[in-house]
Amino acid sequence: MLIDARVLELVRAERRDEAIGLLLPAFRRRVFGLAYSLLRNRDAAEDVTQDVFIKIWRALPHFDGRASLSTWIYAITRNASLSALRARRPQSSLSDPEAMDAADAVDPAPSADAMAERAALQRLVDQLPPKQRQVVMLFYMEQQSHEEVATMLAMPVGTVKTLLHRARATLSAAAGNVRANA
User: Fold this and answer.
1) In whole angstroms, what is the distance from residue 135 CA to residue 74 CA?
2) Quick one: CA torsion of 42, 33, 71, 11, rounded to 10 degrees?
3) For residue 108, with 0-12 CB atoms within 10 Å meaning exposed, 13-18 middle and 19 or more buried, which class applies?
4) Residues 132 and 167 sit within 8 Å (Cβ to Cβ)
5) What is the structure's pLDDT at 178?
6) What residue spans of 40-129 are helical by DSSP H?
7) Contact assessment for residue 125 and residue 170, using Cβ atoms and an 8 Å cutoff
8) Residue 182's Cα: distance from chain center in Å?
9) Angle at CA 48, nearest 5°, toward 44 and 52?
10) What is the torsional sign of CA 83, 101, 131, 154?
11) Contact, 41 vs 96, CB < 8 A?
12) For the chain, which domains are there?
């Protein structure tokens, strides 16, 4: 919430370059993560991430603080990602291991066990249907509330809860199968 107030203050003072300077490090990884979860392609997610921050910079004078900054940014990211999806032909692609490397490059080096667990979890999440995967990414990995996820994905809160329930059941069953086969 502190960043929201500071960004609003800078926008009102017509200092949007400083405002975007606060937003880039705070949201770059999360914007990329959401774009990647929707697009499933590292290059496309990087392009969308750049496009999102340009859109944010242009739209900052119109940000009024009625929604939280993160909700506003995620809505822009979601819309830009969906536009990018519509613009390209449907493609079948396997999970891009480079995307995990790019996301991990921002964090301090995790242990080998933690990396293996994260990779295994990501593979399970990647197998979820797209809507369930998006909800899981936002709720668990981005730590957004049910209401924030609903706003970001333009769906009712009840739908978010149902998708989370189904995703948890699917992930639990898949994890059980992985343990049984290990």
Assistant:
1) 12
2) -70
3) exposed
4) yes
5) 62
6) 42-59, 69-87, 97-104, 112-126
7) no
8) 31
9) 175
10) negative
11) yes
12) 1-90+100-107 (1.10.1740.10), 109-182 (1.10.10.10)
Distance separating alpha carbons of residues 78 and 113, to the nearest angstrom: 32
Running along the chain, 182 residues long, what does each successive block of 10 average in pLDDT? 85 91 93 88 94 94 85 90 76 50 52 72 83 86 83 89 92 74 60
Count of residues making up the chain: 182
Residue pLDDT, tens place only, 39-86: 888 999 999 999 999 999 999 998 887 888 888 998 899 889 888 888
| Cα–Cα distance list, 98 to 39, 40, 94 (Å) | 14, 11, 11
Structure tokens at 156: 């009712």
Q: What angle do CA 149, 153, 157 make, to 5 degrees?
A: 50
Residue with tokens 């107030």: 5
Q: What is the pTM of this model?
A: 0.59
Residue 63, helix vs strand vs coil:
coil
d(CA 178, CA 164): 21
For 110-126, the three-class secondary structure string (H helix, E strand, C coil) is: CCHHHHHHHHHHHHHHH
Contact status, residue 137 vs residue 37, Cβ threshold 8 Å: yes
